[in-house]
Amino acid sequence: MGMGFTAPIYFLFSAFLLLVILMYFFRKQYEKKAIPSVLLWQEWMNEFEAQAWWKKLQHHLLLYLQLLALLFLIFTLTQPFFQKEGIEGDHLIFIVDSSASMTAKEGDNSRLELAKEKMVQLIDKVDNQEMTLIVAKETPEILTERSLSKKEVLQHVDKLEASYASPNVIDSINMAKSLLGEENGNIQLLSDNFTKEASLELHQNTAFYAHNMGTSHENLAVETFGVAMREDTVVGVVTVKNEGNHSKEFTLSIFNDQEETLKQVSEKVEANKVKTIYLEKLPLAALYRVELKGDKQYLLDNEQYAFLGQQQDPTVYVHKDIHPFARKAVEIASTNVIHLTSHPSEGKKFDGVHLIKGLPKSDWPSGPKLVFLSGVDGEKEVDLSGEITANRSIPLMQSVAMEEVYVEKTFSSEEFSSLDVVAGRGGIPLILSGTYQGDPIIIVTFELGSSDWPLHPGFPLFMFHSIQELTQNRGMLGYFYPGQTMDYFPASDVRKAEILNKDNKVVFTSETFEQPIELPLTPGLYTLRETKDESEEFKTLYIMLEDEEKSIQTEESFTISANPATDQDGESTSSKDISYLFIILALVVLLVEWEVYRRGISN
């Protein structure tokens, strides 16, 4: 803190002080004469001259007051101010990148921890300024807005944790610009790789500071990992990227879903290069995990999972008595269709999807089934009335306009009451789906021959969706990114759904299924546990890093500010004008001078 003057040239007016003093010397003069009546006064003056010097000043008080008032006016013209170290702007907005790369280590601390420390330092220098805190997620999140409380903002900063998803910095900056408008504002971005090449159109009253945390780029990353069936064997491919400036040796370990080591490979990758490793003759497994060893700074990109999914179209067995239009639609939906001319003999196994009509339930084959009821098992025939309704949230009904279908009669059975109703008319099910005797099943409860549905363009789509629904790997939910939501349509007998991490700790639970499931933020393998009336079912999902988060490259910090007194840390020397103080002092002196003059005249 210090004092300065905006216009010191006005100190030249100090010459008027000398002018006042000269005028004082050239004031009206009087001759000295000995007058008896004033001898008493002369005696008094002699005594006065023998007194202390500061008392003599009292006899020139008017002159001193005039000089002091003039001096205060000169100080006012020079526009004096006090300088103070602080953060420029009336409204400060902090934008924090909480992505996965911010968890990379810089010494003993992560980049996110360094960013939090930096914010604490900046907030400490805030002086009665509004503060807003934004987390740069996919959808920017405001934690606090226009707060004047340092304590409140610091509490939010202390609770900040990594979200692992790629940051949406541009939208966060645009949100900050909207909050600032034309006011004198300050945007503080704390990230690790925001480049100055980014297009930023800022208001002239807005200052922008990008603090990019981190300097080290030494990183090995598993860029891609995949497995596939090839001639009855499993093959895999892994690509490893080296972001460092030196070649590095590393070891790859491949595990199955039982965490058994299937293979280990040692390789070397050159600086700033990508190495491709081919894996041959892997043992068969539903799930594979690759782990890279040789990197310590950033561990999240050293592991990746891969599911061994369906590698070809499943075999679809079309049993006899199936409607011709259904046969044709299946041939369009799948390239591997087998038409059966008779019912399979007992003990003969057909692995695939079965289209069944007119076959008693006791003769139904095991495996996924699409069944067209015909009353062969004594199902009751019911006349229909009312409007047809369909559950559009179920994939089976995607682009299938069931409301336009003509159907008057259906077959009803209490045995299928536990299945989910996909479409119905007047409260009577037309299409059911779910699990029956442990196998996926879809049931059409009416005769296609007595309906115009096969003539509708949505019928082939329904057959295609049915094959996809019945052949999907029901134990694998697939790949997701941190913070995503998953549409979840459980069977009617599911009472509770829970997501468990690798340590079998519950990280999400729900007993109502009206909203999509919010998936975990931390990358890794998770299990969805469905609790049913009489059993539990488990499904696997993988939260994986986005490609942008497999790099820890950094950019240089930079500043965009119209204030030349601002440094790279966003701190500036603010000035507070104190001219008004000298104006007030000058007025006070003038009032005192007037009172002295008035008393002198009255005496």
Task: Explain how this protein is built.
- This protein is α+β, with helices and mostly antiparallel strands.
- The chain has 5 domains: 2-23 and 36-83 and 579-602, no CATH class; 89-215 and 554-569, von Willebrand factor, type A domain (Rossmann fold); 220-307, Immunoglobulin-like; 316-471, Rossmann fold (3-Layer(aba) Sandwich); 476-547, Immunoglobulin-like (Sandwich), CATH 2.60.40.
- Helices cover 21% and strands 34% of the residues.
- The protein has 10 helices and 35 strands.
- An 8-stranded mixed β-sheet has the order 18-17-19-20-26-25-24-22, with helices on one face.
- A hairpin with a 3-residue loop joins strand 32 and strand 33.
- Helix 5 packs antiparallel against helix 6 (150-159).
- It is elongated, with a radius of gyration of 42 Å.
- 28% of the residues are buried.
- The model has no long low-confidence stretch (mean pLDDT 84).
Task: Give a quick precis of the structure.
This protein has 603 residues and is an alpha+beta fold.
